[in-house]
Amino acid sequence: MSKPIPESIRRLSVGEVAQRSGVAVSTVHFYETKGLISSERNSGNQRRYTPDVLRYIAVIKVAQRAGIPLDEIQEALGPYEPGQRLTAAQWKVVASKWRANLDARITRLQRLRDEMTSCIGCGCLSLKDCPLRNPEDVLGQEGPGARILERP
Fold it and tell me: Residue 98: what are its φ and ψ, rounded to 5°?
């Protein structure tokens, strides 16, 4: 159960949240439907958000920009109340969940950058480098696709 939020904390309208966070109003609503953020309703039944929601949206945007899928963002933030101010220890837990995935993605991207100009490991044997990188088409026996770049 979440703690009640003091009345002294200013509440933001969905428009203010969208403007200050740099996302569309529809995105704010989408994040709310996914349980990533939460709002309260005022007496006029309008959504109101605490300022902490801006930090959550910033975390979501940065994670998405880094290529972390929304379901992984939701999984990492799931143990915490939407909009809760995370402590340094809690943030460390969230970040550690993404680190291995990001490290693997960085490795794949570096491999792609370094090897793309000579061979993508498709097993086609049409490039001069293929006999050196894929002698006797051994990669073709492993299955379709760019086998060299998709290795762990």
Answer: -90, -20
Give me the CATH topology for the region 14-115.
Answer: Multidrug-efflux Transporter Regulator; Chain: A; Domain 2 (1.10.1660)
Centroid of chain to Cα 33: 17
Confidence (pLDDT) at 61: 93
pLDDT in tens, 98-139: 888 889 888 888 877 776 666 555 555 444 445 556 666 666
> In this prediction, what percent of the chain has a pLDDT beyond 90?
22
Each domain of the chain, given as residue ranges in start order, spans: 14-115, 120-152
Q: Alpha helices, DSSP H only, in 41-146?
A: 52-65, 70-77, 88-115, 130-133
